[in-house]
Amino acid sequence: MLGFETVVGLLLPSWEELQLSVAAAAFLIVAYWFLTLGDGVDRTLVETSAGAEMDDDEKEMDQSKGDLHSNSAYLIKVKLLAAKNLRGANLNGTSDPYAIISCGAEKCFSSMVPGSRNPIWREGFNFAVDELPVKIIVTIYGWDIIRRSAVLGSVTIPVEHEGRTGAIWYTLDGASGQVCLHIKTHKLQVDSSRVLDGCSGANTQRKAFADQEPMVFHQKHGPLQTIFNLLSDEIVEHSYSCALERSFLYHGRIYISAWNICFHSNVFSKQIKVTVPFGDIDEIKRSRHAIINPAITVILRVGAGGHGVPPLGNGDGKVRYKFASFWNRNHVLRNLQHAVQKYHTMFEAEKKEREPSTLLDFIKEKQQPALLYFVKEKKMPTLPAHSSSSFRGSESQSNISEEFVAKIEQFQPFIKEEVLTRIYNDVFPCTAEQFFKFVLDDGSTFTNEYHTARKDFNLIVSQWHASSEYNGQVRDVKYRTLCNFPLCPPDIPVTELQHTFLSADKKNLVFETVQQTEGVPFASYFEAHCRWSVETVSESSCTVDITFGAYFKKWCLLQSKIKSAAVDDNKKVYKIRLDAARSYITKSRTSNIASSSAVTQENN
Is 360 in contact with 368 (CB distance < 8 Å)? Predict the structure, then answer.
């Protein structure tokens, strides 16, 4: 009997075990209802989150309506609030959902919510568009550690006019599920900054700078082009081995350029590509992975969204990427922070260069050339005296009359005076009029002989013709020249725009050039501006003063180095050119004297 009671006690549960089982079953039922069947909590959280933003949206809308102009763009703010009843993509019936929000060519990633079919995000994404209507496409994916992420559903929402939608549940086109979005659209001034707190800001700005003029590069594409499909002028400044924190550490390599932080990993044939524009970064700070692994966390601004793979979410609405397993975490952190600082310096300089000079524009409109010359003269820095060997003869600048310069100022300037630096001054054995005749005139062979001696080819020299835009005459000189720079092709095309003006008394000559090249790094960023000022000082001599400078149409990080290198190189180039011109003038004068003597003898 005792044995039977012992066996029954072992097989049947005790009263305490029954109570624990019932409590566990009740907890599972409530949890299942909360996560799958019930939407009251989700809806309450969503409506609370959406309602908390109404006041801020009202303020932004009121501010924007007071500044509307006919030429305006649109800012679309998409708030991804939550989703419910998503399809289970994992073996345990749950999903690791994240969303990709697209508007035109722009695409942003939400954070990934692990182990949920009813995720709550409360994340915002900003898109700047030029016109309406546009379509917002939201696609929900289930993250997979190894395989390609599974599509859980998508929805397309047309945005046709200004206003807001409120928090609306949209049914996904997949097997099941809904997503809750809050969309607000309002006009934005074109003149205001388009670098918004959102994923479209930095990308749009980068493309806008690149679209100003095509970049021509002949070097081989690097990893930024082959892996991330970035622009050809973007090069790797630093690269380090590290790992991206997701479900586990995806080991790969991080690349730092002037515009982006890029990460690439290929673990178990799963491609991970992350591209974070510096314009979307709010903070870069030290952190740790698994307590002992030093890491770097890149925190993005509110509304920026992820780029490439889902970022890590946070309660403050700022998503982030965490990189770990560096050989030297502090060294990488310093380089990242320095790169971000350089980017913002570049951006601020670009903004200042785009700001027009109100005073000078007003003077130009009123056509006051004398005052314009006075203002520009005050802006010109005092040129220091040079003791360089390239300065021969008189060390004083040519004193071209103010009346002569004021007459030129009535027209649009051909070159940018503020970038010019004096590189050459010498005395030539001819007058200003003879200088034009021997060196620059259409009948002169000096240009052809000079470029032939330089081994240039495909030379095309147009005829001088009057210009209504610039006072005097203009022409184009095109040729191909040899290039010994490592990143250049063997020869590159050069276009030189030339402008000349000879005063009425034929004692002052101004010869200006704007040189543009292709095929060298950063060639589309700058032009070479040069001015020759020739003044007659006697019946048989004149002074030739040359100023040169590199004018940057777009800011670049190597601007100061390119400027100094261009000035140093062109000091040598123009010395050789002036020596050739001196020899050509001397030879031409001797030939003319000999011809005159022969004619005189024949007449006698």
Answer: no
One-letter amino acid of 597 = S
Could you tell me if residue 393 is left (phi over 0), alpha (psi between -120 and 50 degrees) or otherwise beta? left
459-488 pLDDT tens trace: 999 999 988 888 889 999 999 988 776 666
Residue 136 token pair: 């917002």
Q: Which residues of 218-229 are buried (b: 16+ CB within 10 A; e: fewer)?
A: eeeebebbebbe
Residue 157 · residue 116 · CB < 8 Å: no
pLDDT tens digits, one per residue of 418-441: 889 888 888 888 899 989 988 999
* Cβ atoms within 10 Å of 132's Cβ, excluding its own: 14
Q: Residue with structure tokens 């419910």?
A: 84
Angle, helices 358-366/369-379, rounded to nearest 10 degrees: 160
Whether the per-residue pLDDT at 46 is higher than 60: the answer is: no
Cβ neighbours of residue 32 closer than 8 Å, sequence gap 6 or more = none
| Secondary structure letter of residue 578 according to DSSP | H
Other residues' Cβ atoms within 10 Å of the Cβ of residue 114: 15
Dihedral (Cα; 53, 55, 59, 65), 10-degree rounding: 80
* DSSP 8-class letter at 323: E
**Is the pLDDT score of 143 beyond 50?**
yes
Angstrom distance (rounded) from CA 482 to CA 492: 7
CA atoms of 602 and 589, how far apart (whole Å) = 20
Two structure tokens written together for 277: 């524009």
Residue 37, phi-psi category: left (phi > 0), alpha (psi -120 to 50), beta (remainder): alpha
Tokens describing residue 322: 């965490």
Report whether the peptide linkage leading into residue 133 is cis, meaning its omega lies within 30 degrees of zero. Answer: yes
**Which pLDDT tens digit goes with each residue over 568-594?**
888 888 888 888 888 888 888 777 665
Residue showing tokens 């089982």:
21
3 state SS of 329: helix
Given a contact cutoff of 8 angstroms between Cβ atoms, the answer to whether 404 and 539 are in contact is no
Amino acid symbol at 416: K
DSSP state of 10: H
Each residue's pLDDT tens digit, 200-252:
555 555 555 555 544 444 445 688 888 888 887 788 889 999 999 987 889 99
Torsional sign, CA 427, 432, 438, 444: positive
What is the model's pTM? 0.51
CA distance 279 to 195: 7
For residue 505 the two structure tokens come to 């008394």
